[in-house]
Amino acid sequence: MKMIILGSGSGFAIGDRFNTSIALLTGTDCYMFDCGEPAGALLFRNGIDPLSVRGIFVSHMHLDHIGGLGSVLFSMYLPGRSKNKKFKPWSITRYDDWYRKNLWFPDQVIEETERRELSLYIPEEGIEAITAYLQAGYLVPAVLPFDLKIRPVQIGEFYRNTNLCLTSVPNKHLENNAAYAVLSEAYPQAKRQSYSFKIEAEGNSVVFSGDIDNLEELTPLMEGVKTVIVEVAHHEPEKIKPYFDRFAVERVILTHIHPGLEERLFGLLESWGDTRFKAAHDGLQIDF
Ligand SMILES: [Zn+2]
Known about the structure:
Strand content: 25-35%
Order of helices and strands: EEEHEHHHEHEEEHEEEHEHEE
Distance between the termini: 6 Å
Strand order of the largest sheet: 6-5-4-3-2-1-14
Helix content: 10-25%
Oligomer: single chain
Bound molecules: zinc ion
């Protein structure tokens, strides 16, 4: 299996660091963890066929983590109508030429497979609004060429199939956000749901932090984990190495990198001199 950091930027995207999204490629399937902008375009840029996306898992409703959802779904909707859904095991190649030749020519259809399900897991507080947003863009169930199932992320194990098991813990990224002191009056129904994920696939265990308030929030997920993808925009990066030194991790990928933090972060990595720690960049491939 392989993971690709599609977007390694913070909420403030810059030219070479886009918002958070991560792809996991296993078997014939792609799973996405967060879906910030421009996730739809970044699938193509990284040679990932959007028709192979089987699940999208969103840590919290901040738009730098879900803003690309519309383009991902639209990239699945349009070629899906060609009914050409022949899948093959993953290799990273660019699909642009394939789409240019095949997308709009029904006489080139090779085979039509059954409707596949796309699982979209988001915080429960966002389901109604996202459903309405998709409807406003005419992505309603009767039109979609796949079965879109929108479900809430649950605490604990919340997703399992033969290839993948996902567990979540809640974190206080939204609850402790000082900017949101006004929310209790202005948006009292906000539940401030935010999660970190443990991803188990092909015998590998990976923790993806989502956005957190404190590294300790990851501790319940860390058992047996060798690879961590951790955001660095909402806590002190100086504490990253001491924290992960407590566990038997083999690599820690630092992501969600704010442009104003790059210099400090690269300086820290140099001072640590520990090859287990690595800064992400857009397009970084993590091999297992
Ligand atoms: Zn956030």
